[in-house]
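Everyone, describe these structure tokens:
***
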Amino acid sequence: MADVPKDLMQEIKRLEEMFAVDTAKLKSITEHFVKELAKGLSVEGGSIPMNPTWCMAFPTGYETGTFLALDMGGTNLRVCEIILTDEKSEFDIIQSKYRMPEELKSGTSDELWEYIADCLQQFVESHHGTKDLEKLNLGFTFSYPATQDYIDHGVLQRWTKGFDIDGVEGHNVVPMFEAAIAKRGVPIKLTALINDTTGTLIASAYTDTKMKIGCIFGTGCNAAYMENCGSIPKLAHMNLPPDTPMAINCEWGAFDNEHKVLPRTPYDIIIDKDSPRPGQQAFEKMIAGLYLGELFRLVLVDLHDNKEVHIFEGQNIDKLRKAYTLDSSFLSMVEEDPFENLSETGDLFQNKLGIIATHSELELIRRLAELIGTRAARLSSCGVAAIATKKGYETCHVGADGSVFNKYPHFKQRGAQALREILDWAPKKNSKEEDPIEILAAEDGSGVGAALIAALTLKRVKEGNMAGILHPENFK
């Protein structure tokens, strides 16, 4: 960067200081995180909801049957049919994806459920025809914070991922979904409502017995793990045996909503203030795919508007001024640019934003993308380290899914390096040596995981062990 002008070099240094998270800071965040996990399990609760899921076993690998899985994410709706075969940990899958129209995210509740029911009807009819259909058991991946009193019940606590539909928060979403399905006469029985993170945990444990934690790093961020019921004070009134496992959906995007430890920049504060839910999802807004491109955009607009910094001079930046015009895939492309002269980044800015950037500006752009991506990866490891510390896991596998984990350049390596720093591991003897806690690409949680949880639920029902698991009305 020897040829970068002094004013831009000063800005790069300022941004480096602003976005850097050193080892000591990572450790203090993790320490606070451990306390917040425990608080969420207590009767009083805390920022992190720590929702019991009523998924109370890991799979054995020998589950069988045919199940539907419905995954309602932030961008797509996916419908799968999963056949769990007689072979250990083997399955067949058929699936279709449907784009979630943007207008649905702020439309009416009826429009949302009718759209989902239409997609399910299309899928079932295209794979099974329309006659003499047997009822299909469905695992519904509803990836939003929900309170579950049973596994086929879920009261939406709050919308995330840019959704803002009236009349759903504070209500059980299952009757709404079932009414839309019944209207179309589709033969589907909702057996389990799950979170994608719980599904990720269960699907990954299906093929890997070392799997202890499931994480999502995508449009949003979250984690799930198995807790003993004896360590969940808010379930004490149910008198469950203390050593009974219970999958906990942490909903850790809400970590540090009180702003005690996370190193927020002025740009993070703007993102929070302008979001549909100010004051919520503090952790998620610093590490999730929905916000990384917006952080990057806000910094560039601020630099352009700062009279002492000369960037994009004399150019029209109206396209760059549009909120959320850049997503995390834009940052990925900047970080992946293999050319020394950053020609691909230059083309990207010209084609997408109508901005012709100088080489010095491209250097700043590349460094800014690295800083935002690195901070996200390093902060994400604090949550993993916190669960491992709380549970006393010295070695385990963590299954991670989501677009940021799978597609963002260097996210895995940067996260692994941060874990090493937080947990004080000795340096590796060679490159092939595994870390004690490895974060690996997860199995398909919202598809296979949903099917497995439906299968585990039916197994409990057959064993007559359904107290607190399924809504009592289902046994009339």
Summary: Residues 54-194+446-463 form a domain with the Nucleotidyltransferase; domain 5 fold (CATH 3.30.420.40). The chain has a mean pLDDT of 92. The first helix runs from residue 6 to 19.
